[in-house]
């Protein structure tokens, strides 16, 4: 009886969770179910999680295939909604890009994010910055400055990083959490700080300088299937706890 009463007491909570899961699934945006949004391009397998952040200027936003856009991510093209921005896309996002929860990508002029880039949560990327030339006018009322932003393929941008107008980030770059990036960052570099500076870089002649402190992870051999990986995980558990079919006497 107590178990039955407990089940009924938990029913409203389970109903709320089930309802919210349905809302999140139904509210997400995909190429097959774009809702009210009319993106310039929305690739196969790409999903914008619900609830969305601010999204406008979507005809000038091109998203590649198999992208994951987290909850509350802002994607904007142009200074405000309902502008005619011309024939070319303003915000281009390549294939396989992940934008973490709460990130902002503000493209008032051209912003390009290469394929297979991963953004942690709450990254802020903008092609526009406030100007403060006139000391007699409030900064918010002065016309902003705009410069294109470009991020090469294969980059990782850590949580809370800020990428400012004019940034040119090469391929396979690591941007440490909380960094503020401006200017040019070379390929295969690690940058950190505010303003961000190169703290490690790889070149064909010297490898990583300074040298990496930890060994590289061992890659999964080619041809290994997901089923085989699951079986390996089970074998690891058996190694720790012993085979599941052994009795108390070990027989």
Automatic annotation (TrEMBL):
This is Acyltransferase. Keywords: Acyltransferase, Repeat, Transferase. It is an enzyme of class 2 (transferase). Its EC number is 2.3.1.-. It comes from the Bacteria. GO terms for molecular function: acyltransferase activity. Belongs to the transferase hexapeptide repeat family. It holds the Pfam family Hexapep. InterPro entries: Hexapep (IPR001451), Hexapep_transf_CS (IPR018357), Hexapeptide_acetyltransf (IPR051159), Trimer_LpxA-like_sf (IPR011004). Transmembrane segments: none annotated.
